[in-house]
């Protein structure tokens, strides 16, 4: 198979610094509250692990997994839940931790689904925000990096299950 060319967008030191800043902002905003981090599998597992370890407030962690049928690279809008959270989030402050928001379809679906369980609040924390690609209006409360274009891999993000565990963030070159 042809080797895909990719170039570094954010090296690990830059990511680490930014994740610390996000954790500080979240710690400041939600001090003294009952906080649940909900990671969206699989892409967010590395980001969530680092974010959680930088938080200065107590919190619990849970995961959900969503599947979107289609090409696999973009959301088709046809989303199903393949793994639900196991935490009762009623009355709690929820932070959805996502790897990347692209069209916004996945995040809008998840937020609406979790809202029905009557949490005190839902915030969205995404490592990467491709804001200009939105098809549904949805904003993240905490954004690691805003990216304009390109397919991003590394630090949890994959291309067909490849590159997920690279410590740096890359963009695939055409
Ligand atoms: P959305 O529903 O279009 O916002 O898509 C979000 C999901 O698509 C993400 O959680 C990723 O799994 C995937 N995705 C979108 N863009 C990228 C990318 O550049 N790299 C890796 N995965 C991506
Ligand atoms: Mg994802």
Summarize the helix and strand pattern as letters: EHEHEEEHEEEE
Counting helices, strands and paired strands, the structural category is alpha/beta
Task: Outline the low-pLDDT stretches.
Answer: none
Total strands: the figure is 9
Radius of gyration based on Cα positions: 16 Å
Shape: globular
- Major sheet: arrangement of strands: 4-3-2-5-6-7
Determine the mean pLDDT.
Answer: 94
User: Strand percentage, roughly?
Assistant: 25-35%
Q: Helical residue percent?
A: 10-25%
Question: Main attributes?
Answer:
single chain; 174 residues; alpha/beta; Rossmann fold; six-stranded mixed beta sheet; three-stranded antiparallel beta sheet; binds inosinic acid
Précis, in short:
The protein has 174 residues and is an alpha/beta fold.
Structure description:
- There is one protein chain.
- This protein has 174 residues and is of the alpha/beta class.
- 22% of the residues lie in helices and 33% in strands.
- Strands 4-3-2-5-6-7 form a six-stranded mixed β-sheet, sandwiched between helices.
- Helix 2 links the parallel strand 2 and strand 3.
- The longest helix is centred in the N-terminal third of the chain and has 18 residues, at 12-29.
- Bound molecules: inosinic acid and magnesium ion.
- The site of inosinic acid has 16 residues, from strand 5, helix 3 and strand 8.
């Amino acid at each position: 198979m042809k080797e895909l060319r990719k170039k570094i967008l954010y090296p690990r030191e830059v990511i680490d610094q930014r994740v610390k800043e996000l954790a500080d902002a979240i710690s400041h905003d939600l001090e003294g509250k009952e906080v649940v981090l909900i990671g969206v599998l699989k892409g967010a597992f590395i980001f969530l692990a680092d974010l959680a370890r930088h938080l200065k407030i107590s919190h619990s962690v849970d995961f959900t997994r969503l599947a979107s049928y289609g090409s696999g690279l973009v959301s088709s809008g046809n989303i199903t839940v393949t793994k639900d959270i196991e935490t009762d989030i009623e009355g709690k402050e929820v932070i959805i931790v996502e790897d990347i928001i692209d069209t916004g379809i996945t995040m809008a679906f998840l937020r609406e689904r979790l809202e029905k369980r009557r949490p005190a609040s839902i915030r969205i924390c995404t490592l990467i925000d491709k804001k200009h690609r939105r098809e549904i209006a949805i904003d993240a409360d905490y954004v690691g990096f805003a990216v304009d274009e390109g397919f991003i891999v590394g630090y949890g993000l994959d291309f067909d299950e490849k590159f997920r565990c690279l410590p740096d963030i890359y963009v695939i070159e055409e």
